[in-house]
Amino acid sequence: MTEKTPIYVFPCGMGDAVMALAVAREYHRQLGQPMHIGHNCLELFQSNSDLVCHPEYAFWSLTNLSQKNAESAGYHLVSLFYFNFQQITSDYWRYYSTDQNLVAMMCSQAGLSGHIEIQPELKLTDEEKNYGNFAEGKIAVISTGVASYKSWPVAKMQAVIDAFPDQLFIQIGTVSDPPLQHVEDCRGKFNLRQLAGILRHSRLFFGPVGGMMHLARSVDCPALILLPSFESPSWYYQEFNYAVPEHRCLECMFQNRNP
């Protein structure tokens, strides 16, 4: 019987796609073949020989039929994940804390071992690397996270900007993000690869945990990350600085708040 090719299905976020770049690089390096991955963020995977992307097997696209189709096509699907849950009662589950790095955790689930290079690398063209030079010396900022437990109140974000009137800030993110004052407003104006170029030239990225944090690391942009009480700095990149709450709260993800 012919051995089926694994397709590794990553969590669905944009930051997960950036972390997939690191996992795929380590997979290619250790096993000598590109990693087949299920994710739909094709923009980040362009011109990357470390992986073969199958958007039809992205996490939110999976059904019983798509899984049968994968088997018929000679693939088998392998889920990579970094959430662990513990059953407390018959109808209540809670998150089980981990201090393991998320990239390292997914590499281990993919059968990789030994030295793991945690930093993702977005493969940009020379033109893309030069894009965004107007952000040179500026601080890139986003005003909110993808969930309230990952976000600071906008007033606090504004207070940080107001505390440094001599610094130049550029606000990136989506058009639906709350606007900040005294910034160069670039919300919704650029695609992900252009944003990577902007971050590459920026002096610093400042904002909550999320996709932009991972994108910043993929292009060597320094960062100050606002860490929610639910999460640990050990999950991410030791090169970054983190503003960490005094107390850890594993319930905050489910209550969708950040004390």
- Which range does the strand content fall in? 15-25%
Strand order of the largest sheet: 9-8-7-10-11-12
Q: Provide the succession of SSEs.
A: EHEEHEEEHHEHEEHEHEEH
User: How many strand segments?
Assistant: 12
Bin the helical content. 25-40%
Q: Multimeric state of these chains?
A: single chain
Contiguous low-pLDDT stretches (5 residues minimum) are none
In this structure, how is the largest beta sheet organized?
6 strands, parallel
User: Mean pLDDT across all residues, rounded?
Assistant: 90
Which structural category do the helix and sheet elements fall into? alpha/beta
Shape: globular
Terminal Cα span: 55 Å
Number of helices: 8
Please tell me how large the radius of gyration is: 19 Å
What can you tell me about this protein's structure?
The structure is a single chain. By secondary structure, the protein is an alpha/beta fold. 27% of the residues lie in helices and 18% in strands. It is built from 8 helices and 12 strands. It has helices at residues 14-31, 64-72, 102-109, 126-130, 154-162, 192-201, 211-218, 252-255; strands at 5-9, 35-38, 51-53, 75-79, 85-89, 92-95, 139-141, 169-171, 184-185, 204-208, 223-226, 241-243. Strands 9-8-7-10-11-12 form a 6-stranded parallel beta sheet, with helices on one face. It has a 4-stranded parallel beta sheet with strand order 3-2-1-4. A two-stranded antiparallel sheet has the order 5-6. Strand 10 (204-208), helix 7 (211-218) and strand 11 form a beta-alpha-beta unit. Helix 1 packs across helix 7. The model has no long low-confidence stretch (mean pLDDT 90).
